[in-house]
Amino acid sequence: MTTPHRILIIGASLGGLSTAEALRREGYDGTVTLVGAEPHLPYDRPPLSKQVLAGTWDPDRAQLPAAAQLDGLDIELLMKQEAVGLRPAERVVQLRDGERLRYDTLVIATGLRPRWLPGSRQLDGVHVVRTLDDALALRQTLRQGPRLVVVGGGFIGMEVAATARSLGVEVTVVDPHAHPLAGRLGGVVGDAVLGLHRDHGVRFRLGQRVSGLAADGNRSVVGVLLADGSVIDADAVVLGLGSIPTTQWLKGSGVPVGDGVLCDQYCAAAPGIYAVGDIANWLDVHSGRRRRVEHRTNASEQAVAVARNILADHDKQTAYTPTPYLWSDQFDCRIQCYGWADEGQEVHVVEGDPAGRKFIALHRDHGRVMAVVGMNSARGMRSHLGALGSTADPVGPSRAQVVNPASTRGQTAD
Amino acid sequence: MRVITEEDKCCGSGLCVIAAPELFDQRDSDGVVVVLDETPGADRHDAVRKAVAACPAAAIRLARQ
Ligand SMILES: Cc1cc2nc3c(=O)[nH]c(=O)nc-3n(C[C@H](O)[C@H](O)[C@H](O)COP(=O)(O)OP(=O)(O)OC[C@H]3O[C@@H](n4cnc5c(N)ncnc54)[C@H](O)[C@@H]3O)c2cc1C
Ligand code: SF4
Known about the structure:
The complex is a heterodimer of chains A (414) and B (65).
Chain A: E1 6-10, H1 14-25, E2 31-35, H2 51-54, E3 75-78, E4 83-87, E5 92-95, E6 100-102, E7 105-108, E8 112-114, E9 126-127, H3 132-143, E10 147-151, H4 155-166, E11 170-175, H5 186-199, E12 203-206, E13 210-215, E14 221-226, E15 231-233, E16 236-239, E17 243-245, E18 257-258, E19 260-262, E20 268-270, E21 273-275, E22 280-284, E23 289-291, H6 296-311, E24 325-330, E25 333-339, E26 346-353, E27 358-365, E28 368-375, H7 378-381, E29 401-402
Parallel strand pairs in A: 1-2, 1-7, 2-3, 7-21, 9-16, 10-11, 10-16, 11-12, 19-22
Antiparallel strand pairs in A: 4-5, 5-6, 8-17, 13-14, 14-15, 18-19, 20-21, 22-23, 24-25, 25-28, 26-27, 26-29, 27-28
Chain B: E1 2-5, H1 15-19, E2 24-26, E3 33-35, H2 45-54, E4 60-63
Bound molecules: flavin-adenine dinucleotide (FAD) and iron/sulfur cluster.
Protein backbone atom coordinates (compact mmCIF):
# COMPACT_ATOMS: atom_id res chain seq x y z
CA MET A 1 0.00 0.00 0.00
CA THR A 2 1.13 3.54 -0.62
CA THR A 3 1.19 5.71 2.48
CA PRO A 4 -1.83 8.04 2.54
CA HIS A 5 -1.12 11.78 2.21
CA ARG A 6 -4.09 12.96 4.16
CA ILE A 7 -5.67 11.13 7.08
CA LEU A 8 -8.99 12.48 8.32
CA ILE A 9 -10.32 11.45 11.72
CA ILE A 10 -13.94 12.21 12.60
CA GLY A 11 -14.57 12.38 16.36
CA ALA A 12 -12.03 14.22 18.52
CA SER A 13 -12.22 12.27 21.74
CA LEU A 14 -10.11 9.47 23.15
CA GLY A 15 -10.30 7.15 20.14
CA GLY A 16 -9.74 9.83 17.54
CA LEU A 17 -7.00 11.71 19.35
CA SER A 18 -5.18 8.49 20.30
CA THR A 19 -5.22 7.43 16.64
CA ALA A 20 -3.71 10.76 15.59
CA GLU A 21 -1.07 10.50 18.30
CA ALA A 22 -0.23 6.91 17.40
CA LEU A 23 0.13 7.82 13.71
CA ARG A 24 2.78 10.37 14.66
CA ARG A 25 4.49 8.00 17.05
CA GLU A 26 4.66 5.45 14.24
CA GLY A 27 6.46 8.04 12.15
CA TYR A 28 3.67 9.17 9.82
CA ASP A 29 4.47 12.66 8.50
CA GLY A 30 1.50 13.39 6.23
CA THR A 31 -1.50 15.55 7.13
CA VAL A 32 -3.60 14.51 10.12
CA THR A 33 -6.90 16.34 10.65
CA LEU A 34 -9.19 15.71 13.62
CA VAL A 35 -12.77 16.90 13.44
CA GLY A 36 -14.86 17.08 16.60
CA ALA A 37 -18.38 18.31 17.31
CA GLU A 38 -17.63 19.47 20.86
CA PRO A 39 -16.54 22.96 21.94
CA HIS A 40 -13.79 21.64 24.26
CA LEU A 41 -10.29 20.34 23.70
CA PRO A 42 -10.37 16.52 23.83
CA TYR A 43 -10.99 15.24 27.35
CA ASP A 44 -11.39 11.97 29.18
CA ARG A 45 -14.90 10.74 30.03
CA PRO A 46 -14.36 8.44 33.05
CA PRO A 47 -13.90 11.39 35.46
CA LEU A 48 -17.24 12.87 34.31
CA SER A 49 -19.28 10.57 36.56
CA LYS A 50 -16.63 10.59 39.28
CA GLN A 51 -14.24 13.47 40.14
CA VAL A 52 -15.71 16.10 37.79
CA LEU A 53 -19.26 15.41 38.93
CA ALA A 54 -18.17 15.39 42.57
CA GLY A 55 -16.43 18.72 42.01
CA THR A 56 -13.12 17.44 43.36
CA TRP A 57 -11.48 18.00 39.97
CA ASP A 58 -11.50 21.09 37.88
CA PRO A 59 -12.74 20.14 34.39
CA ASP A 60 -9.24 20.99 33.11
CA ARG A 61 -7.82 17.97 34.87
CA ALA A 62 -9.93 15.71 32.65
CA GLN A 63 -8.28 17.06 29.51
CA LEU A 64 -6.39 14.38 27.61
CA PRO A 65 -2.61 14.91 27.83
CA ALA A 66 -2.17 14.80 24.05
CA ALA A 67 -4.68 17.66 23.70
CA ALA A 68 -1.96 19.97 24.99
CA GLN A 69 0.51 18.70 22.39
CA LEU A 70 -1.47 19.15 19.19
CA ASP A 71 0.92 21.74 17.77
CA GLY A 72 4.00 19.73 18.63
CA LEU A 73 2.43 16.65 17.06
CA ASP A 74 1.36 18.69 14.03
CA ILE A 75 -2.26 17.58 14.33
CA GLU A 76 -4.90 19.91 12.97
CA LEU A 77 -8.00 20.04 15.18
CA LEU A 78 -11.30 21.43 13.91
CA MET A 79 -13.56 21.93 16.91
CA LYS A 80 -17.33 22.50 16.91
CA GLN A 81 -17.52 20.90 13.47
CA GLU A 82 -19.93 18.08 12.84
CA ALA A 83 -19.66 15.60 10.00
CA VAL A 84 -23.05 15.10 8.37
CA GLY A 85 -22.24 12.98 5.34
CA LEU A 86 -19.66 10.72 3.72
CA ARG A 87 -19.04 9.99 0.04
CA PRO A 88 -16.46 7.20 -0.17
CA ALA A 89 -16.40 7.26 -3.99
CA GLU A 90 -15.11 10.87 -3.89
CA ARG A 91 -13.26 10.39 -0.59
CA VAL A 92 -15.07 13.37 0.88
CA VAL A 93 -16.64 14.10 4.26
CA GLN A 94 -19.31 16.77 4.38
CA LEU A 95 -19.50 19.08 7.42
CA ARG A 96 -22.66 20.72 8.73
CA ASP A 97 -21.38 24.19 7.76
CA GLY A 98 -21.11 23.05 4.15
CA GLU A 99 -17.37 22.50 3.99
CA ARG A 100 -16.15 19.33 2.25
CA LEU A 101 -13.00 17.65 3.54
CA ARG A 102 -11.00 15.36 1.27
CA TYR A 103 -9.11 12.36 2.63
CA ASP A 104 -7.00 9.44 1.52
CA THR A 105 -7.73 7.46 4.67
CA LEU A 106 -10.69 8.04 6.98
CA VAL A 107 -10.99 7.04 10.63
CA ILE A 108 -14.47 6.96 12.16
CA ALA A 109 -14.32 7.70 15.90
CA THR A 110 -17.72 9.25 16.60
CA GLY A 111 -18.46 7.12 19.68
CA LEU A 112 -21.89 6.91 21.22
CA ARG A 113 -24.82 9.10 22.08
CA PRO A 114 -26.97 8.42 25.14
CA ARG A 115 -30.43 6.96 24.91
CA TRP A 116 -33.32 9.17 26.08
CA LEU A 117 -36.85 8.21 27.07
CA PRO A 118 -39.41 9.40 24.52
CA GLY A 119 -40.26 13.05 25.17
CA SER A 120 -37.73 13.39 28.00
CA ARG A 121 -35.31 15.72 26.21
CA GLN A 122 -37.67 18.66 26.41
CA LEU A 123 -38.07 18.44 30.20
CA ASP A 124 -36.08 20.46 32.72
CA GLY A 125 -34.28 18.40 35.33
CA VAL A 126 -33.64 15.36 33.12
CA HIS A 127 -29.97 14.58 32.57
CA VAL A 128 -27.69 12.18 30.74
CA VAL A 129 -23.92 12.01 31.32
CA ARG A 130 -21.86 11.67 28.17
CA THR A 131 -20.15 15.01 27.67
CA LEU A 132 -18.33 17.47 29.91
CA ASP A 133 -21.22 19.90 29.52
CA ASP A 134 -23.64 17.15 30.63
CA ALA A 135 -21.54 16.52 33.74
CA LEU A 136 -21.26 20.22 34.63
CA ALA A 137 -25.00 20.71 34.19
CA LEU A 138 -25.74 17.76 36.46
CA ARG A 139 -23.23 19.00 39.01
CA GLN A 140 -25.07 22.31 39.11
CA THR A 141 -28.35 20.48 39.70
CA LEU A 142 -26.89 18.26 42.44
CA ARG A 143 -25.71 21.35 44.33
CA GLN A 144 -29.36 22.24 44.87
CA GLY A 145 -29.89 19.02 46.84
CA PRO A 146 -32.63 17.48 44.70
CA ARG A 147 -34.41 14.19 45.17
CA LEU A 148 -32.60 12.32 42.41
CA VAL A 149 -33.84 9.26 40.55
CA VAL A 150 -31.34 7.34 38.46
CA VAL A 151 -33.02 5.32 35.73
CA GLY A 152 -30.82 2.34 34.87
CA GLY A 153 -28.32 0.61 37.14
CA GLY A 154 -25.45 0.20 34.68
CA PHE A 155 -21.93 1.51 35.23
CA ILE A 156 -22.71 5.15 34.55
CA GLY A 157 -25.96 5.07 36.52
CA MET A 158 -24.29 3.48 39.54
CA GLU A 159 -21.31 5.83 39.45
CA VAL A 160 -23.62 8.84 39.28
CA ALA A 161 -25.70 7.39 42.15
CA ALA A 162 -22.56 6.95 44.27
CA THR A 163 -21.20 10.42 43.51
CA ALA A 164 -24.56 12.10 44.14
CA ARG A 165 -25.09 10.20 47.37
CA SER A 166 -21.59 11.18 48.53
CA LEU A 167 -22.65 14.80 48.05
CA GLY A 168 -25.58 14.17 50.40
CA VAL A 169 -28.22 13.90 47.69
CA GLU A 170 -31.22 11.60 48.22
CA VAL A 171 -30.90 8.94 45.49
CA THR A 172 -33.20 6.21 44.20
CA VAL A 173 -32.08 3.79 41.48
CA VAL A 174 -34.63 2.06 39.25
CA ASP A 175 -33.63 -0.99 37.22
CA PRO A 176 -35.58 -3.85 35.64
CA HIS A 177 -33.12 -6.48 36.91
CA ALA A 178 -32.75 -7.99 40.38
CA HIS A 179 -29.46 -6.20 41.00
CA PRO A 180 -27.41 -3.39 39.44
CA LEU A 181 -24.73 -3.99 36.80
CA ALA A 182 -26.80 -6.91 35.49
CA GLY A 183 -25.56 -8.48 32.31
CA ARG A 184 -21.92 -9.07 31.70
CA LEU A 185 -20.50 -8.94 35.20
CA GLY A 186 -23.24 -11.09 36.70
CA GLY A 187 -24.86 -11.38 40.09
CA VAL A 188 -21.80 -11.70 42.31
CA VAL A 189 -20.54 -8.21 41.55
CA GLY A 190 -24.11 -6.93 41.19
CA ASP A 191 -25.12 -8.06 44.68
CA ALA A 192 -21.95 -6.68 46.21
CA VAL A 193 -22.60 -3.31 44.53
CA LEU A 194 -26.22 -3.39 45.72
CA GLY A 195 -25.06 -3.90 49.30
CA LEU A 196 -22.47 -1.16 48.95
CA HIS A 197 -24.99 1.39 47.75
CA ARG A 198 -27.63 0.38 50.30
CA ASP A 199 -25.10 0.79 53.11
CA HIS A 200 -24.56 4.33 51.91
CA GLY A 201 -28.27 5.05 51.91
CA VAL A 202 -29.09 4.71 48.19
CA ARG A 203 -32.64 3.41 47.68
CA PHE A 204 -33.57 0.89 45.00
CA ARG A 205 -36.64 -0.04 43.00
CA LEU A 206 -35.44 -3.24 41.36
CA GLY A 207 -37.34 -5.47 38.97
CA GLN A 208 -39.15 -2.32 37.85
CA ARG A 209 -39.52 -0.81 34.43
CA VAL A 210 -39.94 2.89 33.91
CA SER A 211 -42.99 3.73 31.82
CA GLY A 212 -42.45 7.48 31.62
CA LEU A 213 -41.67 10.72 33.39
CA ALA A 214 -44.10 13.08 35.08
CA ALA A 215 -43.74 16.84 34.57
CA ASP A 216 -45.43 19.95 35.92
CA GLY A 217 -46.91 22.81 33.91
CA ASN A 218 -43.47 24.38 33.49
CA ARG A 219 -42.16 21.25 31.84
CA SER A 220 -39.99 20.42 34.85
CA VAL A 221 -39.70 16.79 35.80
CA VAL A 222 -41.52 15.93 39.04
CA GLY A 223 -41.53 12.16 39.06
CA VAL A 224 -40.69 8.84 37.48
CA LEU A 225 -43.59 6.57 36.52
CA LEU A 226 -43.12 2.84 36.95
CA ALA A 227 -44.83 0.08 35.01
CA ASP A 228 -46.62 -1.12 38.15
CA GLY A 229 -48.42 2.22 38.31
CA SER A 230 -46.41 3.73 41.16
CA VAL A 231 -44.61 7.07 41.00
CA ILE A 232 -41.29 8.08 42.53
CA ASP A 233 -41.19 11.81 43.27
CA ALA A 234 -38.14 13.46 41.77
CA ASP A 235 -36.65 16.90 41.34
CA ALA A 236 -34.02 15.56 38.98
CA VAL A 237 -33.63 12.42 36.88
CA VAL A 238 -30.50 10.89 35.39
CA LEU A 239 -31.03 8.53 32.49
CA GLY A 240 -28.49 5.71 32.47
CA LEU A 241 -30.15 3.72 29.74
CA GLY A 242 -27.10 2.96 27.68
CA SER A 243 -25.95 4.53 24.46
CA ILE A 244 -26.31 4.18 20.72
CA PRO A 245 -23.42 4.27 18.21
CA THR A 246 -23.28 7.66 16.45
CA THR A 247 -23.65 6.33 12.92
CA GLN A 248 -26.43 8.50 11.50
CA TRP A 249 -23.96 10.66 9.54
CA LEU A 250 -22.87 7.54 7.62
CA LYS A 251 -26.35 6.90 6.26
CA GLY A 252 -26.33 6.29 2.53
CA SER A 253 -22.52 6.14 2.40
CA GLY A 254 -22.35 2.40 1.90
CA VAL A 255 -20.18 1.96 4.99
CA PRO A 256 -21.63 -1.12 6.72
CA VAL A 257 -23.44 -0.20 9.90
CA GLY A 258 -25.21 -2.40 12.42
CA ASP A 259 -24.45 -2.30 16.12
CA GLY A 260 -21.75 0.26 15.36
CA VAL A 261 -19.55 0.41 12.28
CA LEU A 262 -19.00 -3.14 11.04
CA CYS A 263 -15.29 -3.78 10.52
CA ASP A 264 -13.09 -6.70 9.62
CA GLN A 265 -10.41 -8.05 11.96
CA TYR A 266 -8.10 -5.18 11.00
CA CYS A 267 -10.75 -2.64 12.06
CA ALA A 268 -11.38 -1.64 8.42
CA ALA A 269 -14.99 -1.04 7.37
CA ALA A 270 -14.31 -0.37 3.68
CA PRO A 271 -11.19 0.31 1.59
CA GLY A 272 -9.36 3.20 3.29
CA ILE A 273 -11.99 3.53 6.04
CA TYR A 274 -11.36 2.40 9.62
CA ALA A 275 -13.30 2.66 12.88
CA VAL A 276 -11.99 2.98 16.41
CA GLY A 277 -13.32 3.09 19.97
CA ASP A 278 -16.87 2.71 21.24
CA ILE A 279 -18.33 2.80 17.73
CA ALA A 280 -16.15 0.06 16.22
CA ASN A 281 -17.72 -3.37 15.85
CA TRP A 282 -14.94 -5.62 14.66
CA LEU A 283 -14.40 -9.30 13.99
CA ASP A 284 -12.42 -10.85 16.82
CA VAL A 285 -10.54 -13.74 15.23
CA HIS A 286 -9.80 -15.37 18.60
CA SER A 287 -13.45 -16.01 19.32
CA GLY A 288 -14.85 -15.78 15.80
CA ARG A 289 -17.35 -13.28 17.20
CA ARG A 290 -18.07 -9.64 16.48
CA ARG A 291 -17.11 -7.40 19.38
CA ARG A 292 -17.86 -3.83 20.33
CA VAL A 293 -16.40 -2.51 23.57
CA GLU A 294 -17.56 0.62 25.39
CA HIS A 295 -14.57 1.06 27.66
CA ARG A 296 -11.74 3.47 27.74
CA THR A 297 -8.79 1.11 27.41
CA ASN A 298 -10.22 -0.36 24.23
CA ALA A 299 -10.41 3.04 22.57
CA SER A 300 -6.74 3.84 23.21
CA GLU A 301 -5.52 0.34 22.39
CA GLN A 302 -7.57 0.04 19.23
CA ALA A 303 -6.28 3.45 18.16
CA VAL A 304 -2.73 2.10 18.13
CA ALA A 305 -3.84 -0.99 16.20
CA VAL A 306 -5.68 1.14 13.63
CA ALA A 307 -2.76 3.55 13.20
CA ARG A 308 -0.40 0.64 12.55
CA ASN A 309 -2.78 -1.02 10.11
CA ILE A 310 -3.24 2.25 8.20
CA LEU A 311 0.51 2.51 7.75
CA ALA A 312 1.19 -1.20 7.13
CA ASP A 313 1.39 -2.86 3.75
CA HIS A 314 -1.81 -4.73 3.07
CA ASP A 315 -0.35 -8.18 3.73
CA LYS A 316 1.32 -6.98 6.92
CA GLN A 317 -1.81 -5.77 8.71
CA THR A 318 -2.41 -7.25 12.15
CA ALA A 319 -5.75 -8.53 13.45
CA TYR A 320 -6.97 -6.68 16.54
CA THR A 321 -7.29 -9.19 19.41
CA PRO A 322 -7.21 -7.27 22.69
CA THR A 323 -7.71 -8.40 26.25
CA PRO A 324 -10.12 -5.72 27.41
CA TYR A 325 -9.84 -3.97 30.75
CA LEU A 326 -12.44 -1.89 32.53
CA TRP A 327 -12.81 -0.34 35.92
CA SER A 328 -15.49 1.47 37.85
CA ASP A 329 -15.23 3.50 41.06
CA GLN A 330 -18.23 3.72 43.35
CA PHE A 331 -17.91 5.15 46.88
CA ASP A 332 -14.71 3.65 48.27
CA CYS A 333 -14.98 0.60 46.03
CA ARG A 334 -13.11 -0.18 42.84
CA ILE A 335 -14.37 -2.84 40.45
CA GLN A 336 -12.04 -4.15 37.76
CA CYS A 337 -12.43 -6.63 34.95
CA TYR A 338 -9.83 -8.02 32.58
CA GLY A 339 -11.02 -10.12 29.65
CA TRP A 340 -14.40 -10.99 28.23
CA ALA A 341 -16.92 -11.28 31.06
CA ASP A 342 -20.33 -12.23 29.73
CA GLU A 343 -23.73 -13.42 30.80
CA GLY A 344 -24.09 -17.09 31.65
CA GLN A 345 -20.46 -17.65 32.62
CA GLU A 346 -19.63 -19.59 35.77
CA VAL A 347 -18.17 -17.38 38.45
CA HIS A 348 -15.52 -18.88 40.74
CA VAL A 349 -14.38 -16.75 43.64
CA VAL A 350 -10.68 -17.48 44.06
CA GLU A 351 -9.68 -14.86 46.63
CA GLY A 352 -11.50 -12.94 49.32
CA ASP A 353 -15.23 -12.72 49.83
CA PRO A 354 -17.92 -10.86 47.85
CA ALA A 355 -19.85 -10.16 51.07
CA GLY A 356 -16.81 -8.30 52.39
CA ARG A 357 -16.54 -6.45 49.03
CA LYS A 358 -12.99 -7.58 48.55
CA PHE A 359 -12.59 -10.49 46.21
CA ILE A 360 -11.26 -11.83 42.93
CA ALA A 361 -13.31 -14.15 40.73
CA LEU A 362 -12.59 -16.05 37.55
CA HIS A 363 -15.35 -16.15 34.96
CA ARG A 364 -15.39 -19.37 32.97
CA ASP A 365 -17.15 -20.42 29.82
CA HIS A 366 -17.20 -24.21 29.38
CA GLY A 367 -14.23 -24.35 31.71
CA ARG A 368 -12.13 -21.75 29.88
CA VAL A 369 -11.20 -18.67 31.91
CA MET A 370 -12.67 -15.69 30.02
CA ALA A 371 -12.32 -12.91 32.59
CA VAL A 372 -10.76 -11.98 35.89
CA VAL A 373 -13.10 -9.77 37.90
CA GLY A 374 -12.29 -8.15 41.20
CA MET A 375 -13.43 -5.72 43.79
CA ASN A 376 -10.98 -3.75 45.93
CA SER A 377 -8.23 -6.18 44.98
CA ALA A 378 -6.26 -4.14 42.47
CA ARG A 379 -2.84 -5.44 43.26
CA GLY A 380 -3.86 -9.09 43.52
CA MET A 381 -5.50 -9.15 40.09
CA ARG A 382 -2.30 -9.28 38.09
CA SER A 383 -1.25 -12.68 39.45
CA HIS A 384 -4.45 -14.19 37.98
CA LEU A 385 -4.16 -12.72 34.51
CA GLY A 386 -2.04 -15.66 33.40
CA ALA A 387 -5.13 -17.85 33.81
CA LEU A 388 -6.98 -15.99 31.02
CA GLY A 389 -7.69 -18.35 28.17
CA SER A 390 -6.65 -21.47 30.05
CA THR A 391 -8.87 -24.35 31.07
CA ALA A 392 -6.78 -25.46 34.01
CA ASP A 393 -7.90 -24.63 37.50
CA PRO A 394 -5.05 -22.51 38.81
CA VAL A 395 -6.11 -22.66 42.44
CA GLY A 396 -7.40 -26.20 42.68
CA PRO A 397 -11.06 -27.06 43.05
CA SER A 398 -10.90 -27.19 46.82
CA ARG A 399 -10.30 -23.44 47.08
CA ALA A 400 -12.54 -22.30 44.26
CA GLN A 401 -16.09 -21.55 45.23
CA VAL A 402 -18.65 -21.79 42.47
CA VAL A 403 -21.14 -19.07 43.12
CA ASN A 404 -23.26 -18.98 40.00
CA PRO A 405 -26.40 -20.95 40.90
CA ALA A 406 -27.06 -21.54 37.22
CA SER A 407 -23.79 -23.40 36.97
CA THR A 408 -24.03 -27.08 36.10
CA ARG A 409 -20.88 -27.83 38.05
CA GLY A 410 -22.58 -27.46 41.39
CA GLN A 411 -21.19 -25.98 44.55
CA THR A 412 -17.68 -26.82 45.54
CA ALA A 413 -17.21 -26.84 49.25
CA ASP A 414 -14.60 -24.56 50.69
CA MET B 1 13.61 12.25 31.27
CA ARG B 2 11.52 12.16 34.41
CA VAL B 3 8.49 9.90 35.07
CA ILE B 4 5.60 11.63 36.81
CA THR B 5 2.50 9.84 38.05
CA GLU B 6 -0.71 11.26 39.49
CA GLU B 7 -2.01 9.02 42.24
CA ASP B 8 -5.56 10.35 42.17
CA LYS B 9 -5.86 9.56 38.48
CA CYS B 10 -4.46 6.02 38.72
CA CYS B 11 -7.15 3.31 38.64
CA GLY B 12 -4.80 0.55 39.74
CA SER B 13 -4.95 -1.39 36.51
CA GLY B 14 -1.40 -2.67 36.73
CA LEU B 15 -1.07 -2.27 32.96
CA CYS B 16 2.05 -0.12 33.42
CA VAL B 17 3.61 -2.89 35.49
CA ILE B 18 2.86 -5.38 32.73
CA ALA B 19 4.35 -3.00 30.14
CA ALA B 20 7.46 -2.10 32.16
CA PRO B 21 7.88 -4.24 35.29
CA GLU B 22 11.36 -2.86 35.96
CA LEU B 23 9.97 0.68 36.22
CA PHE B 24 6.58 0.39 37.91
CA ASP B 25 4.92 -1.48 40.75
CA GLN B 26 1.62 -1.16 42.60
CA ARG B 27 0.94 -0.32 46.24
CA ASP B 28 -0.22 -3.34 48.24
CA SER B 29 -3.15 -1.58 49.86
CA ASP B 30 -5.00 -0.12 46.87
CA GLY B 31 -2.99 -1.03 43.78
CA VAL B 32 -2.00 2.57 43.06
CA VAL B 33 1.12 2.94 40.94
CA VAL B 34 4.59 3.15 42.47
CA VAL B 35 7.45 4.39 40.32
CA LEU B 36 10.57 2.31 40.84
CA ASP B 37 12.86 4.49 38.76
CA GLU B 38 11.88 8.13 38.31
CA THR B 39 14.75 9.00 35.99
CA PRO B 40 15.22 5.95 33.79
CA GLY B 41 18.15 5.73 31.41
CA ALA B 42 17.79 6.10 27.66
CA ASP B 43 17.64 2.32 27.19
CA ARG B 44 14.36 2.32 29.12
CA HIS B 45 12.60 5.23 27.42
CA ASP B 46 10.76 2.94 25.03
CA ALA B 47 9.44 0.90 27.93
CA VAL B 48 8.25 4.07 29.68
CA ARG B 49 6.45 5.22 26.53
CA LYS B 50 4.74 1.84 26.30
CA ALA B 51 3.55 2.23 29.88
CA VAL B 52 2.29 5.77 29.21
CA ALA B 53 0.33 4.49 26.21
CA ALA B 54 -1.02 1.49 28.15
CA CYS B 55 -2.22 3.49 31.15
CA PRO B 56 -6.04 3.60 31.02
CA ALA B 57 -6.24 6.62 33.30
CA ALA B 58 -3.69 8.96 31.70
CA ALA B 59 -1.94 8.91 35.06
CA ILE B 60 1.66 8.71 33.78
CA ARG B 61 3.50 11.61 32.20
CA LEU B 62 7.01 12.22 31.00
CA ALA B 63 8.80 15.47 31.69
CA ARG B 64 12.09 16.66 30.26
CA GLN B 65 13.52 16.97 33.75
C1 LIG C 1 -19.66 9.26 32.25
C2 LIG C 1 -18.75 8.20 31.67
C3 LIG C 1 -17.92 7.48 32.54
C4 LIG C 1 -17.08 6.49 32.02
N1 LIG C 1 -16.31 5.79 32.90
C5 LIG C 1 -15.51 4.80 32.45
C6 LIG C 1 -14.70 4.04 33.35
O1 LIG C 1 -14.69 4.25 34.55
N2 LIG C 1 -13.93 3.05 32.84
C7 LIG C 1 -13.91 2.77 31.51
O2 LIG C 1 -13.21 1.84 31.11
N3 LIG C 1 -14.64 3.48 30.62
C8 LIG C 1 -15.45 4.48 31.05
N4 LIG C 1 -16.23 5.22 30.16
C9 LIG C 1 -16.17 4.88 28.72
C10 LIG C 1 -15.11 5.66 27.97
O3 LIG C 1 -15.15 7.01 28.30
C11 LIG C 1 -15.33 5.47 26.48
O4 LIG C 1 -15.06 4.13 26.19
C12 LIG C 1 -14.46 6.37 25.60
O5 LIG C 1 -14.80 7.70 25.79
C13 LIG C 1 -14.61 6.00 24.12
O6 LIG C 1 -13.95 6.94 23.32
P1 LIG C 1 -14.37 7.18 21.79
O7 LIG C 1 -13.38 8.17 21.30
O8 LIG C 1 -14.55 5.90 21.11
O9 LIG C 1 -15.83 7.82 21.84
P2 LIG C 1 -16.38 9.14 22.52
O10 LIG C 1 -15.59 9.43 23.74
O11 LIG C 1 -17.84 8.96 22.64
O12 LIG C 1 -16.07 10.30 21.47
C14 LIG C 1 -16.74 10.50 20.29
C15 LIG C 1 -16.59 11.95 19.90
O13 LIG C 1 -17.07 12.12 18.58
C16 LIG C 1 -17.80 13.32 18.50
N5 LIG C 1 -18.74 13.21 17.38
C17 LIG C 1 -19.85 12.44 17.31
N6 LIG C 1 -20.45 12.57 16.11
C18 LIG C 1 -19.71 13.45 15.42
C19 LIG C 1 -19.80 14.00 14.10
N7 LIG C 1 -20.78 13.63 13.27
N8 LIG C 1 -18.86 14.88 13.70
C20 LIG C 1 -17.84 15.24 14.53
N9 LIG C 1 -17.70 14.76 15.77
C21 LIG C 1 -18.62 13.86 16.21
C22 LIG C 1 -18.47 13.43 19.84
O14 LIG C 1 -18.83 14.77 20.10
C23 LIG C 1 -17.39 12.91 20.76
O15 LIG C 1 -16.56 13.95 21.21
C24 LIG C 1 -17.07 6.22 30.63
C25 LIG C 1 -17.91 6.96 29.77
C26 LIG C 1 -18.74 7.95 30.28
C27 LIG C 1 -19.63 8.72 29.35
S1 SF4 D 1 -1.33 1.80 34.15
FE1 SF4 D 1 -1.98 3.80 34.92
S2 SF4 D 1 -3.88 3.36 36.02
FE2 SF4 D 1 -2.84 1.40 35.75
S3 SF4 D 1 -1.63 1.12 37.62
FE3 SF4 D 1 -0.30 2.10 36.11
S4 SF4 D 1 -0.53 4.29 36.52
FE4 SF4 D 1 -2.22 3.30 37.53
